[in-house]
């Protein structure tokens, strides 16, 4: 199991404000087979890839499946006792991550009123918080250092922070206002977005009309193009990672799987993502490039138009085989331009995929987007096709009550007494040098 986890490289971070166990709303006139497929789809896709892999790896029947073995190269699962026999040692000085001298030494948990839990992930919670002095509302992502270190995810947490620092100037990417840490926790102070996940709205309506799907796809493509201009590949685009703001514009979140420093012709090879959206080259364990993001855009656009991802199957091995080998099937209820853009984005050969030659410009100039004024789009001058109709920051109608009804832990808003710090907490405190960050004064004017 440890060998497989090493190959996967990391547990996928939970996306900002993303509840993990939503119940699918009852939709009228949906057939029983579609409901069964949808429920299975909800259950599987809400898992991180690594959590999903752990589940099938502990299932002896699934492990024996030839396609699962060939794709994941699973070794025999270890006994739980053996897995815990050698706990991870504390980080050595050479393992410490230091992103430089930028810091916000004055920020502390007591600066905030933590009002509601609005999400939960592998390493902590996301909370709605009001800054006491500014009286501004933020989404504060609070992560437990010990949990991060246990799964050896410190480098990826720091990478997420590093990507967030570069995203503050784009309208369709969530912004980091500042970050700080205590001895046992990390705090991301982020834009508060309360229009709901795209997936939340999609699962209620089953699918979107083409103009609405095009609007969302255009804003998503703009955000991906911006990340690519910074040599960042996103790698985990899906409706759960796409939020709507209070006006109905797209906000892309969760940068835990981003890969930095990928030049225009550069490649990477880490096997990561979410099963339903993995590009063929990732499943083949081949080097891949920025075009994985355009594949995912195609999958999301297909899902917006049809209700499920393009190659979805309740049987994961069959779904992987579909992604690798099954021709794309398009029903005749969309326009020719929509068919053409889906065929281009969901091209299995990445060298022939839409975006392979000129990246975002190819998507921008496609006939499907010919009605989009891209200058107006980036300046939010196009009225969104749907308004979430939230009344203000306290309107939590688009968050799962499973989280909003949960009491806010007292430990979230205070620092631990130094006298009570354990050795493990002190070791954790040394692993995140340079995490704290404060923006220049004029960054958010």
Automatic annotation (TrEMBL):
One of its GO terms (molecular function) is potassium channel regulator activity. It comes from the Eukaryota. GO terms for biological process: cellular response to aldosterone; DNA damage response; intracellular signal transduction; neuron projection morphogenesis; sodium ion transport. The keyword Kinase applies. It catalyses: L-threonyl-[protein] + ATP = O-phospho-L-threonyl-[protein] + ADP + H(+); L-seryl-[protein] + ATP = O-phospho-L-seryl-[protein] + ADP + H(+). Residues 1-25, 80-106 are annotated as: Disordered. Pfam families: Pkinase (PF00069), Pkinase_C (PF00433). Residues 95-105 have a biased composition (Polar residues). Keywords: ATP-binding, Kinase, Nucleotide-binding, Phosphoprotein, Serine/threonine-protein kinase, Transferase. GO terms for cellular component: cytoplasm; cytosol; nuclear speck; nucleus. InterPro entries: AGC-kinase_C, Kinase-like_dom_sf, Pkinase_C, Prot_kinase_dom, Protein_kinase_ATP_BS, Ser/Thr_kinase_AS. Belongs to the protein kinase superfamily. AGC Ser/Thr protein kinase family. PANTHER family: RIBOSOMAL PROTEIN S6 KINASE. This is non-specific serine/threonine protein kinase. It comes from Sus scrofa (Pig). The gene is SGK1.
